[in-house]
UniProtKB/TrEMBL annotation:
Biological source species: Phormidium yuhuli AB48
Keyword Transmembrane appears in the UniProt entry: yes
Family note: Belongs to the DedA family.
Protein known as: DedA family protein
Keywords assigned: Cell membrane, Membrane, Transmembrane, Transmembrane helix
InterPro entries recorded: DedA_domain, VTT_dom
Segments crossing the lipid bilayer: 55-77, 142-164, 176-197
Domain VTT positions: 35-159
Membrane topology per record: Multi-pass membrane protein
Stored Pfam families: VTT_dom (PF09335)
Compartments it resides in: Cell membrane
Length: 208
């Protein structure tokens, strides 16, 4: 969740705008806008558990918003994302060859990344654009995106709907955020460790 927006403010937004807050919050976040969409979804499920919103409508809004947002991100990436990444890469001193390598890595795991990306910090925002940049077939993307959105929304809304009655909302949101960051760290290690081993093996071969 963005540190600039407190949980109290997110609750107020959810109470004031209800289902639209859930739908547009996660939709814009998945499209690449840094908004607390996941937190709005959790708050929506919590309010459903309190009887202020309907569980099934919150679930529908979360699922639909997630699908829409990633579709927008996909077409942004498909129509011009990579040239933009190249320009940003130059500012960050990342070569175009390295960016091509990153795109290739995503392509090899695109389906899994799109399906599971919402449970991983940052990847929830960038999975759509990266899928477009890597030119993942739209039909395949839509299937992975829609099924992933349904699973993610079901978990988040159900978790806050049921567990929110037993655990304070602040602890619930913090726990989900910690899991998301932990998943990101595991993903980084899963990518970095094999590459480090690949780099070490040629050096050992040269020493021999």
């Amino acid at each position: 969740m963005s540190e600039a927006i407190s949980l109290e403010a997110v609750e107020e937004i959810a109470r004031q705008y209800g289902y639209w807050a859930v739908f547009w919050g996660i939709s814009l976040e998945n499209a690449g806008v840094p908004l607390p969409g996941e937190t709005l979804t959790l708050v929506g499920g919590f309010l459903a558990g309190e009887g202020e919103l309907d569980y099934w409508i919150v679930l529908l809004c979360a699922t639909g918003g997630a699908i829409l947002g990633d579709n927008v991100g996909y077409w942004i990436g498909r129509w011009g994302g990579f040239p933009l990444m190249v320009r940003i890469g130059r500012l960050l001193r990342i070569s175009e060859e390295q960016l091509y390598g990153l795109r290739h890595q995503f392509t090899n795991n695109a389906a899994k990344a799109v399906f599971l990306g919402r449970f991983v910090a940052l990847l929830r925002i960038f999975a759509g654009p990266l899928a477009g940049i890597s030119e993942m077939p739209y039909g395949k993307f839509f299937l992975c995106n829609a099924s992933g959105a349904a699973v993610w929304a079901s978990v988040m809304v159900s978790l806050s709907f049921f567990v929110g009655r037993l655990v304070p909302l602040e602890k619930l949101v913090s726990g989900v955020a910690t899991f998301s960051v932990g998943a990101l760290l595991l993903l980084v290690l899963a990518i970095a460790v094999p590459r480090l081993l690949e780099l070490r093996n040629p050096l050992k071969m040269e020493e021999k």
